[in-house]
Specification:
about 650 residues; alpha/beta; Substrate Binding Domain Of Dnak, Chain:A, Domain 2; Rossmann fold; six-stranded parallel β-sheet; disordered N terminus
Length: about 650
């Protein structure tokens, strides 16, 4: 792999020589933190060494005869816990419980959106409306709900009812299983891993991993697969579709990213978390003339809204609201001294924010009944009075504006980006309004101008340099003619260094660049938030159905990477992608490395069963090499591994062509 970007062609230059972050804004704030003795996730990661036993999956804590630590050279073959549990059982159980938690998080997100959709259908959620009727009708079609001649509110009610039934049903199959390629459905049914109901699979997996229940590593992992599929082809896919229905399907939009988007002379409200039902109303409230006038009366020029983490992606791709950063930037935003309110809901929110805010004036406002933080202000969000709640939150930020006590320290770093490439827009971009199709993409892969597709997703992790693997891998893949799609914090990482701009074509290989220039498509596509990894599944399915690249997702020359992952949600995503036929590589560490048999089950074992596999690779260079090897193997299996020369037919040759 090459060196970090040079900053040529107007693209931002990553910070060099820093082992914490390549984000120059983060480096600037971390230097301040070090000088002033401020604790951050970066410094705490240095002080708190990870437990080598627990982090490798060798510690069992599912009963209170332990914890039992299964360590040593021969632990896999000779050691057991007090109950006799072997190391493979312990490691598989640990991974499976993480998958259950990740699935629960994403699916609860989907449930809340489905309940909001139900309230909209019943007229009980003022402020919300159906903004994408076309998407509503498409979703109804996927669900087998009739639409012809029916009122929008009636179709909406049926869609919401069907969506909610996916969570509680006890038998049958999840609705969206039918959206997978036919061959993939047959594989799942043959292996008995089709999810019945989202909640049922989570509960069964938690039961199975209780002390004294399932004690066969392969069988435990099979139930983990079934649960994770309930995330990818259930809760997350429903969340994405319903968000599009309520808030509109994303299309490309220009914005900017990094801590430099905060403004010294305006009330800064930063929304952080994952649920768009709240953030959409915060956007609306921030534009209220009365609240703007109130802010001006306090001495501010106006109200500036910014985002952190996946909430940032939600309001970015639909409104162009600029992200202040990704997961590891949340504390650094507070340290600028200009965040008047950090508004949080669920997932990836550091408890340290409250203690840090005590050094500044920032008001940390929790909003979800599921998540409170000791010392924070709680203003509970209610979708039945959504705009009213949002206005109260904005008003609290305005009232806090005069309390700024520190000299503003906003890093002068921000970068332009283009976000919002939904499945629907990519299809339109490739074929136009009346000939929307993935055919041009498939053809470009078949003829070798694009070698394959790479999804680079996932979190940041304070135990690896912030943004570095995301950026370096993205830059290397596009240089070698691989189209890259990104979601979540990974997408925001690339955005900071100009990778989500058309100008990134300057780094692209000649084949990929030719396609991008012909279609107007940048070489790196922003697909949304974490739950929007489901968009990747629908894109891969569309490529299969378009033809020419095999009969299943497992045939495609594609890989999925999470080089800086840290959350249980990432393990759920990785599991459902592997079970859908993808090769998935995750960085930083392996949570099952203590058991070679579990490592083998996730890799060769799953590849034999599902056609996809999950591996953990800490070296980004090896990640790139393994990805390329896999994609080239798939190209060879499809018979498209040799570059095809373009042939120009003369009139005589044309006459010989059969019609």
């Amino acid at each position: 792999m090459g060196d970090l970007g040079s900053g040529a062609n107007g693209l931002p230059r990553p910070a060099e020589g820093n082992n914490k972050s390549i984000n120059p804004a983060a480096v600037e704030m971390l230097e301040i933190a070090q000088c002033e003795g401020i604790s951050t996730a970066f410094s705490r990661a240095d002080e708190m060494k990870p437990c080598p036993i627990g982090s490798s999956g060798a510690c069992c804590r599912v009963c209170y005869m332990g914890p039992c630590r299964l360590t040593g050279k021969d632990a896999e073959s000779t050691m057991t816990g007090v109950c006799g549990a072997t190391l493979p059982t312990v490691a598989a159980r640990s991974l499976a419980r993480a998958v259950a938690a990740g699935t629960a998080a994403h699916s609860d997100h989907g449930r809340d959106l489905a309940m909001t959709l139900m309230a909209v259908a019943k007229g009980e959620a003022p402020g919300y409306e159906i903004k994408d009727v076309r998407k509503l009708m498409a979703v109804a079609g996927h669900m087998g709900i009739p639409t012809q001649g029916r009122a929008v509110k009636d179709v909406t009610l049926d869609v919401a009812t069907r969506a909610l039934s996916n969570f509680g049903q006890q038998t049958g199959e999840l609705t969206y299983v039918s959206r997978a390629p036919k061959k993939r459905q047959e594989i799942w049914r043959g292996l008995g891993v089709v999810p019945r109901g989202i909640d049922r699979e989570v509960v069964q997996l938690m039961h199975a991993t209780h002390m004294g229940v399932d004690q066969d590593a392969e069988h435990i992992l099979q139930q983990a697969v079934r649960t994770a599929l309930g995330d990818g082809w259930g809760g997350s896919m429903l969340a994405t579709d319903i968000s599009d229905i309520l808030f509109e399907t994303p299309k490309p939009i220009l914005s900017e990213v990094n801590l430099g988007v905060l403004k010294e002379d305006e009330v800064n409200v930063v929304v952080h978390g994952h649920e768009p039902t709240l953030s959409e109303m915060i956007v609306a409230a921030s534009m209220d003339p009365e609240l703007i006038a109130m802010a001006q009366a306090k001495g501010a020029k106006g109200i500036n809204l910014a985002g952190i983490c996946c909430t940032a992606n939600e309001i970015l791709m639909r409104h162009g609201i600029p992200p202040a950063g990704n997961f590891l930037d949340q504390e650094l935003a507070v340290m600028t001294g200009v965040v008047d309110a950090m508004v949080v809901d669920v997932q990836c929110i550091m408890q340290a924010l409250v203690r840090l805010s005590e050094r500044y004036h920032t008001k940390v406002i929790t909003t979800s009944p599921k998540a409170m933080i000791q010392g924070a202000t709680h203003i509970q969000f209610n979708e039945h009075d959504a705009l009213g709640t949002a206005k109260r939150i904005i008003q609290a930020a305005i009232e806090n504006y005069p309390n700024r006590s520190k000299k503003p320290r906003i890093p002068n770093h921000s970068s332009d980006l283009v976000a919002g490439f939904s499945h629907e827009y990519i299809e339109y971009m490739l074929g136009g309004r009346y000939r929307a199709s993935f055919r041009p993409l498939n053809d470009a892969i078949i003829d070798g101008r694009i070698q394959g597709a790479v999804a680079i997703v996932g979190c940041n992790n304070a135990r690896t340099p912030h943004d570095k693997s995301h950026f370096e891998l993205t830059k290397e893949f596009i240089a070698n003619d691989y189209l890259v799609v990104e979601t979540g914090c990974g997408a925001l990482a690339s955005a900071k260094y100009g990778m989500l701009l058309g100008e990134a074509m300057e780094h692209a290989g000649p084949g990929l660049r030719s396609i991008c220039e012909a279609t107007g498509m940048p070489p790196v596509l922003h697909l949304g938030s974490c739950v929007d990894n489901s968009r990747i599944l629908t894109i891969l399915t569309a490529m299969v159905e378009e033809g020419g690249l095999g009969e299943d997702i497992s045939d495609l020359p594609a890989v999925g990477l999470a080089p800086e992952w840290m959350s249980e949600k990432a393990l759920s995503i990785a599991t459902y992608c592997a079970a859908s036929g993808a090769y998935v590589l995750m960085g930083v560490t392996s949570p099952v490395k203590s058991s070679q048999s579990v490592v083998d089950l996730l890799s060769t074992g799953w590849e034999e069963k599902y056609g996809g596999k999950l591996e953990f690779e800490t070296d980004p260079v090896r990640t790139f090499e393994k990805s390329v090897d896999h994609i080239q193997k798939k190209r060879k299996a499809l018979g498209i591994d040799t570059k095809k020369e373009r042939v120009l037919f003369d009139m005589e040759a044309r006459r010989e062509l059969s019609v």
